[in-house]
Amino acid sequence: MSTEEDAKWLQWVTHQFETIAGKDGEINLQEFKAALNVKESFFAERFFTLFDSDGSGTITLQELRDALTLLIHGDPMDKLKFLFQVYDVDGKGSEGREGWGERGVGSGASPHSASSPRGTGSGSIDVDELRTVLQSCMRESAISLPEEKLDQLTLALFESADKDCNGAITFDELRDELQRFPGVMENLTISAAHWLTPPASRPPRRRPRPLTSAYWHNHRSHLLCLAVYAGLHVLLFALAAHAHRALGPSVMVAKGCGQCLNFDCSFIAVLMLRRGLTWLRATWLAQVLPLDQNIQFHQLMGYVVVALSLVHTVAHVVNFVLQAQSEASPFRFWELLLTTRPGIGWVHGSASPTGVALLLLLLLMLACSSSCIRRSSHFEVFYWTHLSYLPMWILLILHGPNFWKWLLVPGILFFLEKIIGLAMSRMAALCIVEVNLLPSKVTHLLIERPPLFHYRPGDYLYLNVPSIARYEWHPFTISSAPEQKDTIWLHVRSEGQWTNRLYESFKTSRPADCGSKQLSRSLRKRRSQRRPQVSEMSSENHLFCNIKCYIDGPYGTPTRRIFASEHAVLIGAGIGITPFASILQSIVHRHQKRKHICPSCQHSWMDSIQDEDMKLHKVDFIWINRDQRSFEWFVSLLTKLEMDQAEMAQEGPFLELHMYMTSALGKNDMKAIGLQMALDLLAKKEKKDSITGLQTRTQPGRPDWNKVFQKVAAEKKGKVQVFFCGSPALAKVLKGHCEQFGFKFFQENF
Best exposed site among 202, 258, 283, 517 by fewest CB in 10 Å? Predict the structure, then answer.
């Protein structure tokens, strides 16, 4: 920081301190813990003891400023001395800040005498102290490991750091161990609370994304369709207004909006023809039309319909007011607006009352389509009010003399799809044969697969379980591979009312049909496990069932493009892994088809010829989870993938896994550095990660997307396409980075 920035920061810290300290002007241990917002009080107590230089039991503003100045502005050696004091548990911080704050000690000498006896503040860390620290690090990062694994981590770090094997880690040994991890010493920080770190400087103002060339390149089909849509509205409005120019401006506006509404109210249904869109994805039109944005276009068209309807209504109201004021008109304003007496319209003068009814229905549908209703526990309100499109179409036919002509082709297509879907979904009831309750309230369903149910990796279906809700259908991504013939897998996260009822129906009480035919279900399970697939079953919370259900689908998604990509980057956040689970299992199956084993010597090799529809040269799979248990959902699948990768005889890995745990603190944090170093050492020794059991090391925190995409671009494995399934907030971040690097971005609606 410059002198001016440093003064501003100290002023800011003073203000933050005063809001926490209150009237007494000092912070006690409890206030310090609350301000740090730490999960484990061990670190708060250690930091507090070291900050409290006079041992008074409270921290003054001056003590805090002196400590923070050294930690933030000090050199790496100052921070390392503070870290050593924190880890020296039995030292109890007896030397206060003098042990790590004096610049004269920065020459490399220990802040304590290495020859002093241990356990009395001698400046050495024994194995029991290190175990205590690592246990606190685990709690701070929300990591749960068995006691045996904690012992292994402790010994791995202790034996690596204790170079002279004297049973204690000195300051010099800790410094040498940290230097093995590049960049850690330079970036070491407490990073425990916002009020302990200086405010970030404001980033330079960037151009709005729509004005960048990368944005135009990645959204050209989307923007072209919007331009065509806008141009068509201008044309329709102009033609209708010109045809009625003799009737005055208000009628011209009303007729122009009405002609646009004829198109919108009929074509809006085409955007939700899921079977038709799935068929289009297999054609060359998928490269031209933005089929992945069909829901966004549907929503946009809905807003346009509302806006045009309001303008259309206002224009007619103005015209009615002018007519009512005219001496030649025998009708009053309310008669023109609400009755059939004036004879306005082609069916018994019903244009005015049907128009009022249409506007009320439209506003009701708009209100019930808001995200707060759709994504809350009131989904059925959105569902049932959206079915009012049927009475709306009837009213529109009565309202406008030409609407039936616009609706003819879209309406036939719409009702054909509905009839086909209803016939196929209700043709025969299926059964949920197995249920597995997973961490984070995720329900894993195994549904018997119909004989003619053909789908591609990443597709989704609609599920109806009459015992949960007779008339509700909900979309879920198919998480099993198409090569899995007997069952279909669904992973359902409990978010709304329906999904919570589904989970609780298995959690709180066993359904009536659960537990029946256990022998036949077990036989089916054993037989299915002989096939080349991955099972996620566990004995706990695992039920055999025979519950009736119906499915409608399958329907295509953007992930169908993955196998046509050259370098695919798959990013799943939490349960957003489900479409990629199907894809990864399909990759496993295809590789197993290419694998051959010599019956004599058991030598195995892989065919170099891939499937015709698979152009992939490289796949990077990135899975981001908040907590440790969420990795249990698909850990056996990922383990199988790693095993297959080890057997592949080709240059470099075809599939590269990247795992991130956002609740875990990184190596630059004093509350986690020891644990992360130990995890690295043990992973290198055992060839597997202690958190997931995979060979891939689980990284703490969130990915640095700039570094991730820089690495992907540097590999030059072909044209990069990024596929994401997760929260909309993260989608915006990823989309911005993809535009920066020129990657094509596809998002699964989540």
Answer: 202
Q: In this structure, are residues 240 and 308 in contact, taking their beta carbons and an 8 Å threshold? A: no
Q: How many CB atoms within 10 Å of residue 400? A: 24
Q: Number of structural domains, the chain?
A: 4
Does residue 107 belong to any structural domain of this protein? no
Using only C-alpha atoms, the chain has a radius of gyration, in whole angstroms, of 33
Dist. CA 564–CA 394, nearest whole Å:
44
Please give the Cα distance from 576 to 724 (Å, whole number): 8
Verify cis geometry, omega within 30 degrees of 0, for the bond prior to 728: no
- Is residue 573 a part of any domain in this protein? yes
- Give the burial class of 48: count Cβ atoms within 10 A of its Cβ; 0-12 exposed, 13-18 middle, 19 or more buried: buried
Give the closest residue to 338 by CA, choosing from 351, 321, 324. 351
The 3-state DSSP class for residue 697 equals coil
Over residues 229-276, the pLDDT tens digits come to: 999 999 999 999 999 988 889 999 999 999 999 999 999 988 888 888
**Residue 680 Cα distances to 126, 236, 666, 667, angstroms:** 20, 66, 12, 10
What's the rounded Cα separation, in Å, for the pair 509 and 504? 8
CA distances from residue 363 to 64, 340, 690 in whole angstroms, order as listed: 58, 23, 55
3 CB contacts (<8 Å, ≥6 apart)? none
Percentage of residues in the chain having pLDDT higher than 70: 80
Q: Do the domain assignments include residue 290?
A: yes
Contact (CB, 8 A) for 144 and 678: no
430-467 per-position pLDDT tens digit? 898 888 888 778 889 999 998 888 888 888 999 999 88
Residue 92 has pLDDT above 50, yes or no: no
The alpha helices in 326-340, defined as continuous H runs, are: 333-338
Instruction: Say if residues 547 and 513 touch (Cβ distance below 8 Å).
Output: yes
718 with 632, same domain: the answer is: yes
Nearest in space to 723 (alpha carbons), one of 588, 564, 609, 597: 564
Could you give the residue ranges of the DSSP H alpha helices within 400-467?
403-426
